[in-house]
Design brief:
Length: about 270
């Protein structure tokens, strides 16, 4: 495998050179993709996508401790040009804080992660959609590089939390995420490194053309189906921070549901090829 974060023809790749990892931070570009930390995603006369073409979406549930910070970060990085959509089932001040920060809030009864995120990714009409979580674990400063990968031809850009170690993640969760990636890689016949990351960028036609079926396991499905259908999927190392607020996921029950989703989706996509 090359030292590039660039993968094409339905394969996913991540930077694997250890010395590069030590030197790279979240604003660095992968060598093989035409990305620079100096990317001006707000002023491009070439017809490339800019922040005016970007929607950042998330499912939110009782995240009043973190949501304001996340939205401030998005606003700062994108100069206030990115659209933000929150699909919310909270009983606290999360939706109120989101609206105060200019986000579009779609309220729904709590039905699980996948239901909320599916609604979030299908609601905006801008051509590039980025999913993230609302707990301040993901680096919004990586948005220019994700957008640059899309402009370089990627259909999906997936943030690999595990590349840098994800020390802020509980050890049990970290082990589980490595296991999910190994399981998906085995079933797909393609190496992937982080199947359950919440931070990805998609071209709109990808999210519109694929029928999403999973709930707890939607994050894995959002990677597996595009990859197995031959889309240009790229994994990009990102830093993962300690979450603000309490986690809502049961690590045992949720982990079992994710593993089941990985097996189900991989088998469905294998059968679809016949």
């Amino acid at each position: 495998m090359s030292d590039s974060a660039h993968a094409t023809n339905g394969s996913a790749a991540a930077v694997e050179n250890g010395s590069e990892a030590a030197a790279m931070d979240d604003t660095d570009a992968a060598d093989g993709a035409d990305i620079s930390g100096d990317t001006d995603a707000t002023a491009d006369a070439s017809g490339a996508y800019t922040f005016d073409d970007l929607s950042v979406v998330m499912g939110t549930y009782n995240e009043e401790e973190a949501i304001g910070t996340v939205l401030d970060d998005i606003d700062e990085v994108t100069d206030g040009k990115a659209e933000v959509v929150c699909v919310d089932g909270s009983s606290d001040r999360t939706p109120e804080i989101a609206r105060e920060h200019g986000a579009t809030v779609i309220e729904q009864e709590p039905q699980g992660y996948g239901v909320a995120v599916s609604e979030a990714i299908l609601t905006p009409d801008r051509p590039v959609v980025v999913t993230t979580d609302c707990d301040d674990t993901y680096p919004m400063e990586a948005l220019p590089e994700f957008l640059a990968e899309i402009n370089d031809g990627a259909d999906v850009v997936s943030g690999d939390r595990l590349y840098h170690g994800a020390d802020a993640m509980p050890a049990f969760n970290r082990f589980g995420n490595h296991a999910f990636a190994a399981l998906a890689s085995l079933l797909m016949g393609e190496r992937v490194h982080d199947t359950t990351t919440g931070m990805r960028a998609y071209r709109r036609d990808v999210v519109e053309e694929i029928g999403w079926t999973e709930n707890t396991g939607l994050s894995a499905e959002l990677l597996i189906r595009p990859l197995m259908r031959g889309y240009d999927v790229r994994e990009r190392p990102i830093r993962y921070a300690e979450r603000l607020g309490e986690t809502k996921l049961d690590p045992i029950g949720g982990g079992a549901a994710i593993a089941k989703s990985i097996v189900t989706v991989c088998l469905e996509e294998q059968l679809r090829r016949f």
